Amino acid sequence: MSLIVRKIRDKQHLHIIDAKYELGPIFGKQKNVWITKPDYAEAKFDELIAMAEMRQNMFAQASELCGCLVRDYGEYFKVTGLKMPIITLVVEELIVTMGAVKEDKLVKLLVTGRSAGIFVVACSQYLKADILSRKGSVNFSTRVFMGRWDSTTASILFGSLTKAQTEEYQNYTGAPGKAIVEINGELSTKQMPRISEGQLQQYMKP
Predict the structure, then answer these.
(1) I want to staple 153 with a disulfide (CB 3.0 to 4.6 A). Which of 5, 37, 127, 190 is the partner?
(2) Is the whole-model pTM more than 0.85?
(3) Phi, psi of 96 (to 5 degrees)
(4) How far is CA 166 from the centre of its chain?
(5) Are 15 and 85 in the same domain?
(6) 113 with 161, same domain?
(7) What are the tens digits of pLDDT across the range 43-89?
(8) In this structure, are 116 and 134 located in the same domain?
């Protein structure tokens, strides 16, 4: 919730695949927020992949015109002065969405989208290989595990853990907000902030 609020306040464009229609009633009326049902998830992925590829073509054209290397949306802005909106796709329930979208499309969006300013945030109650494989999860630059310890989910998110790491994380997780976080290959534990209903309403005020 706090991540979505922050992105809205930063005037980013937000696309939400809302499996249970829990986020739609809260954020659906906000400017630059689009709510999609899981039935149309594949079309949303295709749309964002096409947008990422279009932006990459624009980077290539800018490179040719300026005779310099334009690799991402930040460098594109420096060279052209044209600002592209940052886009985030929030997959509210990965279990449901991956029943409609092939994993290779998720991976393609993660790989092509990052430099183009298009990012993916995916949430899931648990993971199995038929929902998301380890090959797919490694393309997320940040991975967070919260809740009761589950060895299958942990292995998909973090790969092989040592016996000592497994014992440490197994004992740490379970309580509200306690998380294992991997950012760009670095593992750590973290107490994640909680957001109350009152705080959410306050955040959502214009």
Answers:
(1) 127
(2) yes
(3) -75, -45
(4) 25
(5) yes
(6) no
(7) 999 999 999 999 999 999 999 999 999 999 999 999 999 999 999 99
(8) yes
Quick one: 42 and 74 in the same domain?
yes
Cα–Cα nearest to 156, from 139, 173, 133, 179: 133
Residues of the chain with pLDDT under 70: 203-206
The tokens of 80 are what? 């052209």
Tell me: do 62 and 4 sit in the same domain.
Answer: yes
Range of the domain at 198: 141-206
**What domain count does the chain have?**
2
Q: Specify whether 35 is located in the same domain as 128.
A: yes
Q: What is the rounded CA–CA span in Å between residue 106 and residue 121?
A: 11
One domain, residues 156 and 75: no
> For position 24, which CATH number holds?
3.40.50.300
